[in-house]
């Protein structure tokens, strides 16, 4: 049985109906994950205690835009500043020190819809880290069927960064089953991201952002 690593990430929360349950499961299994949150869900302040709980229990909190817009479809600078900057403000001191940012892929596809040049330049200037993924079992579409897909995606590579969603779809009722399935196959849960999923780290390009930018001719070439 070959060993492999799995990094768990949860997008589009926090949700009072689901996020505490997810945190309970992770604590029970001694797993640290990353929660990429939406700014619009933090505006009224009632969900911020969920971020503090996640942080206090060793999880990382990252930025997933304000309104879940694919930034590659909105090339203006003001949109990038609002979607990224406003969300970072709302996350506040719960944010990871590396300013983790996950772009929105719509259907989970990695490609030029993820970022505009304006957004990429803003992220570089602000010292953000862009976190991508290499396993997306579509739990939002298949709340009862995503586990087998996720396991297949994970065992097929040395280090999988899995996108799940702490949303009220019922999918997270199967989170514990997924954890057991991974461990039975020799998988190890780690918090760090695969190198291939971190093209931008603290504002410095480690690999080219060009494949994820809709208008790469306007990308800044200046190191930040």
Automatic annotation (TrEMBL):
Any one GO molecular function term: hydrolase activity, acting on carbon-nitrogen (but not peptide) bonds
Q: Which residues form the NodB homology domain?
A: 4-190
What protein am I looking at? Polysaccharide deacetylase
**Biological process, per Gene Ontology:** carbohydrate metabolic process
Task: Please give one Pfam family short name.
Answer: Polysacc_deac_1
Q: Where is the signal peptide?
A: none
Q: Which PANTHER family match?
A: GLYCOSYL TRANSFERASE-RELATED (PTHR10587)
The source's superkingdom equals Bacteria
InterPro entries referenced in this protein's UniProt entry, alphabetically: Glyco_hydro/deAcase_b/a-brl, NODB_dom, Polysacc_deacetylase_ArnD
Q: Which organism is it from?
A: Caballeronia glathei
